[in-house]
Fold:
Amino acid sequence: MTATAKWITRLRSSCPKGWSVRNMRGKIYLSVRSGAGGKRASTATLPLAWAADTVPEAISLIAELQQRVDKEGFDLSDALNKVKAPVPSKSPSVASEWPDLVEKFQTDLQVISPVKPVSWERNYAPFLNRIIELMASSTAPINARSLAVNLIEPWSEMPTNRGKAIKCLRLFLDFAVEVHNLPAESWTLTDRSIKQLRGAKAERRTVATISDVEILRLLDSLADSDAANRWRNAIKMMALYGLRPEELNHLVVKDHPETSKPAMYCTYQKVCNKSKTAPRWLMPLPLKNLAGNVVDWNLAGAMAIKQLPMPPLGDKYAVKTFLDRQNVWTELREKYEECGEWLRPYSFRNSYSLRAHRIGHRNDVICMAMGHSLSTHESNYEWARSDSVLEHI
Structure:
């Protein structure tokens, strides 16, 4: 059943026995039959549009008219004259109320579940700005579905952003209907529409495992400046310890409980569903250069004496933004794309995982060092490469 059929059925099924409604030039035309066999009939055109938005008002008006006709003895015309028809609910006006509604929605989100500025800019602002733009046009959408169809148009070939757009729209419209009386009949995004418009999820991409030599080449390509050296330190840290980018903000140096030498400790607790990962000691796994020699980076020692400056990392995408500006990173990304793999900051973790397995560390030790479960490790991280097999042939 279509959305239109649903509200029409709801309106008609709410009418008392002998009462019926139909569309008459865009207005609700009411017919009342009474007497034996319904011989007596009276009709009236209600001061309400034949539209989903007016259904609640129409049901209320018909109920009051029935009270006056059946219980108080008025004829339909007199009853309608005595009943003050409710003013239909109105959608926000084009000029000002939609932007105001968006602003109120943002405030409401902060109360329920605070949204960081970077998350707002990436997951809400682009879609809400487009909603305001669409509702200000001369051909503004008239209901939730038409708004959704127009909203996702710029991201039609981008499954992830299309999904974000639909999620944002649903949250926004639920707020507008519940808190600011936007007519639910027209402005509720149904589960069926959400599933259809969101489309299929993006296929899971294989994260590339960058080699030690490629990491060293990337580091060598960075400029010799204070700013570049800070980023060089950050990349070394991710490569040596297999860190998530966010974990660069949560590192401290502690004395090793057995050797008393400086050792790296991560205080970050990643939220996984309803649980959190535990803070952990980090295990350095040195890289090897093209000649097969171990490259020695004493990062824990350098940090202990405050000789390891780091770049600004307030933005969760800071590492990605920096890497995307580097020519060597771009070359490597194109290389891995040809193999169907995705080069991203997490590639340093994949590299760490593969290095750990090649060294021969136990799975539980690797998982503890990387801060995730065995099941996560098995399904998401590199264990071995085909060239490892060739070494034993």
Q: What stands out?
A: Residues 3-82 form one domain. The chain has 19 helices and ten strands. The first helix runs from residue 3 to 13.
